[in-house]
């Protein structure tokens, strides 16, 4: 059985080290004169020489990309260039929806395998089921060759109400058939789940900050308040940020009128402050935020606003430390540059941007690995804080700047020493692929079980940790799991629940033994 190689995701939010396209290719005549110190004209002239005179054929657009990549690399780690293809995907992700067929899939043995069709989506309406293989999109073959992800997306996405004929192989019946799928707008949830942890404690998991996150969060609050919620837990773990306006909208739901949420300062020293309005849905009641070392940007601004205004407590581990403001500037070819134009500051005045040296992105991201080596992820006392960067919250509590949000209550990594990478592997798609392949061997085994019956059956099977260890080894990641079997089993069982029943049951199992959740509920 061929299994795609797995890579350990040590760096979750690595900056894309590319460049910006210089707008509009202009062929200046060779006779044109240039100012002696006009560096812009010099660059254009060089590109023009190469385009017209160089002995071999050269893709000048690639040269432009490389040139400006190097320019951006000399600035800061978060000023980046985004290609047209990347920009299209990112735009959908931030917008909160896309037009497509509505399936979760991955490439398994060079075939598109449907993990789960989105409930009520076009594929589900067309009769596509979990475990199905997509062989053709119209007449385009989609198996037996390694297609890049963007190519697959392009085949399955399209205009609203456009049709695509999919050829499906159903393993359970060993039959191939065709079905016409009418593409539609597919929402991309950024609020994964809103549920009650107990009779009065609500829980909202925010995966990322898109344009729709503020509205999703408002709807979630209304739902939980209607169910009797009196205290709220907001989970920002693994949330690398996104649309800042959505983070501000969420803070506004929780803070009282005229409380400062965030302010920015640009190179000229101009300051812009953002305050809460009078329209907050949960301005009273206990609030707790969960963060970790991969909570960044918008997540940190929200956490800082809650912490500095003494609105609630922050639980977890020190956040990533991204406090730079980017402005997106678009080019005519669909590409864009995200250029750092200012810095964010929390209400107490602290910058949570961690230090960096211009032109040294490698060292910037290595700081993430340094946290493993220093023991910071296991012991609060190992967190590096500077006494010179002390700030005070509204009620006079001491908080620190200089690199991320330091939590009020520390919770260490769950995995054992020496198995630090395991916890990050479990949070990627690897577990989902493993579970899919386990289910694919005999889907009938779970076909007609209720959730309680499923739970009883899977908890009796103690073999999944060893199976997962073997799966990792075959995939190129030899990792001994002897000391973390309970952790592995919890993630595997939760993923079975997600693929068989849905997201709500996934979190129902995942959160049951979650150390941060347990810490919150015991407070």
TrEMBL record:
It comes from the Bacteria. Keywords: Hydrolase, Membrane, Protease, Serine protease, Transmembrane, Transmembrane helix. PROSITE patterns: PDZ (PS50106), PIPLC_X_DOMAIN (PS50007). GO terms for cellular component: outer membrane-bounded periplasmic space. Residues 87-171 form the PDZ domain. GO terms for molecular function: endopeptidase activity; serine-type peptidase activity. The keyword Transmembrane helix applies. Belongs to the peptidase S41A family. This is S41 family peptidase.
